[in-house]
Amino acid sequence: MNRLQQLFQNKKKDILSIYYTAGYPNLNDTLQIAEALEKAGADFLEIGFPYSDPVADGPIIQASSKQSLDQGMTLQILFSQLKDLRKTVTIPILLMGYVNPVLQFGVENFCKACAEIGIDGCIIPDLPMYEYEELYHSCFEEHGVSNIFLVTPQTSEERIRKIDGLSNAFIYLLSSAATTGKNLDVSANARTYFARIKAMDLKNPLMIGFGISDKQTFDAANEYASGAIIGSAFVKCLANGDVEKNVKTFMKEFRN
Amino acid sequence: MSYFVNEKGYYGDFGGAYIPEMLYPNVEELRQQYLSIIHEESFQQEFKALLKDYVGRPSPLYLAKRLSGKYGANIFLKREDLNHTGAHKINNTIGQILLAERLGKKRIIAETGAGQHGVATATVCALRGLECVVYMGEVDIKRQAPNVARMKMLGAKVVPATSGSKTLKDATNEAMRDWINNPVDTHYIIGSVVGPHPYPDMVSIFQSIISEETKKQLLEQTGKDQPDYVMACVGGGSNAAGMFYHFIDDESVKLIAVEAGGKGVDSGLSAATTYLGKEGVLHGSRSILMQTPDGQVVEPHSVSAGLDYPGIGPQHAHLFKTGRGKYVSITDDESLNAGLLLTQLEGIIPAIESAHALAYLEYMKFKGGENVVVCLSGRGDKDMETYMKHFNL
Ligand SMILES: Cc1ncc(COP(=O)(O)O)c(C=O)c1O
User: Has UniProt tagged this entry with the keyword Amino-acid biosynthesis (chain B) (predicted)?
Assistant: First the structure.
């Protein structure tokens, strides 16, 4: 059982996950941000490895990715920044990014590097289920890396069942079909959709993400899922000033 | 060996649908329905009628006598430049708008580089009364002002793509983001044989009219429906895919695809994808693309905005890898000179994209008497400013 699976076994509600882009605001901030977030009460983290063409992302994460790449970030550098991760960080860590950098790094090498460092899973939005099953699944399993799939309001029930079968950590429920960084409108529609998925009684726990930006949207998500994921809102707060201070200020709203 | 798509959406090692879950329902709907819709009799009737009466097809196959004399072979030009809106792009947008209507879509989005595909999309949207939003890189908006004005006059909203390099690749990213955020009522008309399956296959089917007509016209004019060579320029590869389509399985016909070499393939300012690229994933399919060792997409360069793209469609990657097609490149200067040559020998001003295909005739070794078809994918009106600057006209 990896850290992620353990977390979901021990904690059923109020799980807070934070996404941030590696190498942003400064190339070598990656590890320090992870440490600060753990200290401030985050339950697990998604560290984004940047890509030049992030089609699923809105302006904030596009900009952080571009800045990180301009500062020289690569997967190789990210893995070296994280090599001593497990000396100081105990919470589960996922890597999130697009498939092409993984392909160029080599899927096998990527999984190996994750396992060596103690990365618990990945989210690769543009890796389709069919290709994952055919070419990646066994490699991920062998190295104990959980692959996280996304579900949107338009995903069919049949497909959600299939995703549930292929998942072994949690399912990432998108608050709406949208790129990152839009504000969640906790409308009746969204609630009906969350409730519909909750009622499917899946074997994997649910985390809600995209558009979660404050305590109010976090609490709303918690009514239907084990917790929620915050990305753009956090990345935005890192833009200026001291990293540790920014992390503390941001997390105060959620954890005190 | 098959050179066409298999039921999983692959051409050999290339293709597939590498898309985030948010796009899955739309792309899947298209995948399940595109072939049955295209093969409906009512669709075919409407498609063929519009191509004839609105686009002006069949486009002529013209034996360019003076050009033939210069090169010592029979050079036929497939005159896609004479289509309504001035390029082959309209064959695809007519097909896709009819498909979008049958899928019940109310809103059309598109990306454009040179603006030819944007104009062709805005045109069919005006024709059918559908809302149209075209994404175009901020840099291209400045380079291609007349086409921006045409799109606006046609009623389209032109949205500048301000991310990344602000050119075609970024316009494509923005269009994909729009589609993610509008998952129900919108159809994305991709302008080339790129994108997730079924786009490459669908677009090549709509463009296959080019080789379908060519075969008939060759038979009439030469007594044989097979040429020795067919040649076309490749940006994403749609005019080439259409020009090759009905000749692909006939290995006696040599396929020549001409990429944009920019300032030279090793100059750092080039769009010669097969020469500079590696296998990878871009815009939803596995193909060949220009990228760093870390998998970041590299900015291409070409004097012609329509060829200024860091990838090629998956079918082209397959034709290249299997050796079925020959992929070559031509520099900016060579293409401009070829454009001038055609203008002065035949009285036809070609698009700079198409001039790339013509320029490769200089490198061909003919025995004499071969039949060669060059796809003249578009006319040069949009490129006058570039020609004027280059030749001090
Ligand atoms: C006249 C013309 N030819 C060729 C192209 C390149 O596209 P493709 O390779 O898809 O034919 C374009 C693209 O804008 C064009 O306008």
Answer: yes
Nearest-angstrom CA–CA distance, A222 and A208: 8
- Report yes or no on A256 lying in a domain: no
Residues of chain B in contact with residue A166, where contact means CB-CB under 8 angstroms, are none
Considering only CA atoms, give the Rg of chain A.
Answer: 17
ipTM of the complex: 0.94
> Beta strand B14-15 with B10-11: parallel, antiparallel or unpaired?
antiparallel
Catalytic annotation on A158? no
Let me know if residue A151 belongs to a domain. yes
Say yes or no for a CB contact (<8 Å) between A179 and B180: yes
Range of the domain at A196: 12-251
- Taking CB atoms and an 8 Å limit, are A128 and B17 in contact across chains? yes
Residues A174 and B21 sit within 8 Å (Cβ to Cβ):
yes
Distance CA B231, CA B228 (A): 10
Q: What is the pLDDT of residues A181-214, one digit of tens each?
A: 887 776 778 889 999 999 999 999 999 998 899 9
Q: Which of B123, B129, B132, B57 is nearest to B94 (CA)?
A: B123
If you ran DSSP here, which 8-state letter would residue B198 be given? T
Alpha helices in chain B (DSSP H): 24-39, 41-50, 65-71, 89-102, 116-128, 138-143, 145-153, 168-181, 199-207, 209-222, 238-244, 273-276, 314-322, 332-346, 352-359, 384-391
CA distance linking residue B196 with residue A49, whole number of Å = 23
Whole-number Å distance, alpha carbon B365 to ligand 1 midpoint, is 26
A253 phi, psi to nearest 5 deg: -60, -30
Predicted pLDDT at A182: 80
Q: Coil, helix or strand for B270?
A: coil
**Looking at the partner chain, which of A53, A99, A154 has a beta carbon nearest the beta carbon of B297?**
A53
CA separation for the pair B170, B163 (Å, rounded)? 6
Residues 110-139 of A with CB under 8 A from B: 125-128, 130-131
For residue B63, the cross-strand partners are: B76
In a domain, A42, yes or no: yes
* B367 backbone φψ class: left, alpha, beta (φ>0; ψ -120 to 50): alpha
Distance, CA A4 to ligand 1 centroid (Å)? 48
Q: How far does the CA of residue A216 sit from the closest CA of chain B (Å)?
A: 23
- Partners of B284 on chain A (C-beta within 8 Å) are 126
Instruction: Give pLDDT, residue B239.
Output: 98
In this complex, which of A52, A66, A154 lies closest to B25 when CB atoms are compared? Answer: A154
For chain B, which residues score pLDDT lower than 70? none
Looking at residue B205, its pLDDT comes to: 98
- Taking only the tens of pLDDT, chain A with its 256 residues reads 889 999 999 999 999 999 999 999 999 999 999 999 999 999 999 999 999 999 999 999 999 999 999 999 999 999 999 999 999 999 999 999 999 999 999 999 999 999 999 999 999 999 999 899 988 999 999 999 999 999 999 999 999 999 999 999 999 999 888 888 887 776 778 889 999 999 999 999 999 998 899 999 999 999 999 999 999 999 999 999 999 999 999 999 999 7
A75, part of any domain = yes
CATH number of A104's domain: 3.20.20.70
Q: Could you tell me the distance, in angstroms and rounded to a whole number, from the CA of residue B316 to the centre of ligand 1? A: 14
**Chain B interface test: which of A27, A52, A157, A193 (most B C-beta within 10 Å):** A52
User: Domain tally for chain A?
Assistant: 1
Residues of chain B with C-beta less than 8 angstroms from the C-beta of A55 = 20, 173, 176-177, 180, 283
